[in-house]
Amino acid sequence: MKKCVAFIAILTLLYSCGKGNDRGELVGVKGKSWHPEKPYGMTLISGGAFIMGKSDDDIAAVEDAPTKTVTVRSFYMDETEITNSEYRQFVNWVRDSIIRTKLAIMADDLGETPGSGGIGDFAFADGDTDNLNPYQQYMYDNYYGLGETGFEGRKLNKEIDIIWDTNDYPDEYYSEVMDTMYIPVEEAYNGQRTIDVDKLEFRYTYLDIEAAARVKGKRKDHIKTEKVKVYPDTTVWIKDFAYSYNEPMHNDYFWHDAYGDYPVVGVDWMQAKAFCEWRTLHKNEYQKTKKKQFVNRFRLPGEAEWEYAARGGLEGGDFPWGGPYAKNDRGCFLANFKPLRGDYGADQALYTVEADAYEPNDYNLYNMAGNVSEWVASSYDPNSYEYMSTMNPNVNDASNRRKVIRGGSWKDVAYFLQVSSRDYEYQDSARSYIGFRTVQDFLGLDEKVNLRKAPK
Length: 456
Description:
Layout: H1 2-17, E1 37-38, E2 42-45, E3 48-52, E4 68-72, E5 75-78, H2 84-109, H3 134-142, H4 172-179, E6 201-207, H5 209-214, E7 223-229, H6 236-239, H7 247-252, H8 269-289, E8 298-299, H9 303-311, E9 373-379, H10 384-387, E10 402-406, E11 423-426, E12 434-435, E13 439-441, E14 452-453
Parallel strand pairs: 1-14, 9-12
Antiparallel strand pairs: 2-5, 3-4, 5-13, 6-7, 8-13, 9-10, 10-11
Helix pairs in contact: 2-4
């Protein structure tokens, strides 16, 4: 009994002398101090209320946007549409990840380990089981080998660069893996054998929070898996226009550096969503290496968020610059659209222009009118304004494949450039005039305190 009392006394002494002494008060659990960091290339849109919908007569008599006062929370938004260069970063990441996985699987099948030379240099980083730490060993014994491919969770070796020059391939196994990534020889022409873009598939999982919150069931029942082919459909430049010569755009627009700063097109709604998931994953991989808190997810904007941002703080305006005209006082067009019958070049652009062309609105957002229409997260219902919430409204019905596009494009007349005009396209359709931009929720309430720019 004396030993027990003495042990309790020692514990009490240790607790009272510890760093976490709260003197018996309710002080809360203190985590790391949080300093909001503006994501690169984005601008902060301070939340507020506005009148959503047509502020004047609906000339087209569509009557799908009656006025309604709504409130949105603060969020960050891309200053420009996602460009070809930015989307290529996504495509290249998917391509390289697939190649590294294929090389690692081949090395694993051959019994090769990291550093053994040849294809072994690309083996899984945990392939040498003699040098695993306790956690890695536990995961290797209990979880690796599960999943669709049997290699989920294995860590790729990203320290060594992929070898692209066929003259430098290290061995025949490496050559065999790389050969599977290119189009068949019989499909090549002019001596060019390119990557088979149909193999560039991005796989991600997410929790359907809406369903989980409203439907009873286990958490695992609401975890969804998506597989998306990420390469843009470059044939849209041909398919969208009958009896029209647009082959140069089909051949060069996405991959050539001349168009690197132009908005990506030929991307459907599912691909735009996949890009958001990848951007979150890519950023948080970096955060993990720096032992920083993870950022919250990037996503497509809701319809109300998009319109609020496009208005730039101007109440009742037809366009991001106010209106009601699409020209300034010097007779210059203020956006890239179809201003006259068949005269696409009257605004100095036949197709798209650079994503930061023309003047931004008062929120420093470029091309919220014209250039390319933009996917948003909302499903299109002509009556949705009648029943949607007045707080952060967003109507996204998974069974409704019609998704809203906003802002008008280079091939549209001025009506579709109005900030209140609504249009839609089916979620699996890609067009030469539809792109997108992303948003990220602002965490916290006071946007003025501790807000700093991300380092370039």
